[in-house]
Amino acid sequence: xxxxxPLQRQRPFKITLPQRSLIVLCGPAGAGKSxxxxxxxxxxxxxxxAPSMVISSDxxxxxxFDDETNQQANRETFDLFHFIITKRxxxxxxxxxxxxxxxxxARHKLLELxxxxxxxxxxxxxxxxxxxxxxxxxxxxxxVGIDVINYHFGQLxxxxxxxxxxxxxxxxxxxxxxxxxxxxxxxxTILPSPPANPEA
Length: 200
What we know:
Layout: E1 2-3, E2 13-17, E3 21-26, H1 33-42, E4 54-56, H2 57-65, H3 74-90, E5 95-98, H4 104-116, E6 120-126, H5 130-137, H6 146-162, E7 170-174, H7 176-180, H8 182-185, E8 186-190
Helix pairs in contact: 2-3, 3-4
């Protein structure tokens, strides 16, 4: 696993990934994951990034229930979430998985899919305080409340001690400054696939 070295902790992060990469966003509700993903795509449109590369659990929930706040049927939501990610992997498409991913089971499932399809894994941990998450939440329609955010923050503390043993290829911890200015602090390059060998 290539955890960010002391040099990599200096901003900007300069991240180079192959085409067959799964980028996993991990953090509490209200941490800014979805907004960060949108910025990441927008600043790399010239390199072939597209909004469709972001697969969100909220989007999957909305597709099934017409309501992304519906938390009653997570199994159906994440069946679709993993199904879409798998289909993209079968097409060799780089993919951003946008969910809280704060439990070991959630991250393990994504790691398992990546391993099965020979994908590199890159974990972005949103190490954002509950106060900032709550402030972000008050600016959006979908609100989960302070109790859920505090619970997520407790899960985040567990994650910070667990992820080094989980088998990620690259890991980056993001601060509030990173999510407020991703174009300045995150320089992400997806390498194009090598041309097919006609003699193969």
